[in-house]
Predict the structure.
Amino acid sequence: MLNPDSVGRTFAGTDVITISQSEVDAFCAVINETDKTIAPPTFTIRITLTQFEAILTQPEIGLDWARLVHGDQKFEIFSPVKAGDALTCAATIESYRVAAGNEIVSVRSDLHRGSELVISSWATLVVRA
Amino acid sequence: MGNSSGARMIEVGTELPEKVFFLDRALLKQYADASGDQNPIHQNEEFALSVGLPNVIAHGMLTMALVGKYVSDFAGGSSNVLEFGARFTKPVVVPAGEKVDLTVSATVSEVVDGKVSLTLSATSAGVKVLGMAKAVLKK
């Protein structure tokens, strides 16, 4: 079970993540995107899901990642991501509830390039009973 | 999307042409590597069955990435996509040796302040796989 005290807390990612051209190329190849100068709209899930996993499975938070299902996902893109961008990720646990034994967690991720907010994204993650 | 003569009319209710993508196990592996999501439910049939799934299922985010390609193409490039969201309502089931469809279409739901909103539809084998799917584009 998720520790309810963690709701409303923001966790700063520790590392600066530099996007490589090969990462963008690999993502573009899956969807046959020929313009590799810009990362596709959902590319940054590659960063944010990893960050969510690292944060939410910390012992004091306690989410069981193995039983996790992705409920929904939304992106707001203020500035498209490109290879060479150095991004930091901050994740906020926005809400948490239990329904029929399922744990439902809403998390927001804010990706910054320096001080500029480039992408906010929201995910609802469901831990099945 | 331009405004030159010959550009298509974009107004509320405009229906975009349908596009069909195909998913197979190789694409799921390729997406697992590209996204970093190596959850075995997307690659290992025995594991998927053991956790109560009907078969290997596609990553919801792979479905969304393909719909995102549809959106980017209409928008004239990924840089014109401002918002994109969806709910994962049903999994896309991908049996071994098969290619399954992901059929995508959209309707213009709003045109305001230089932005175009799309309501998106995504089905596989006739089953709706995304709900509340919406994108907002720079006009």
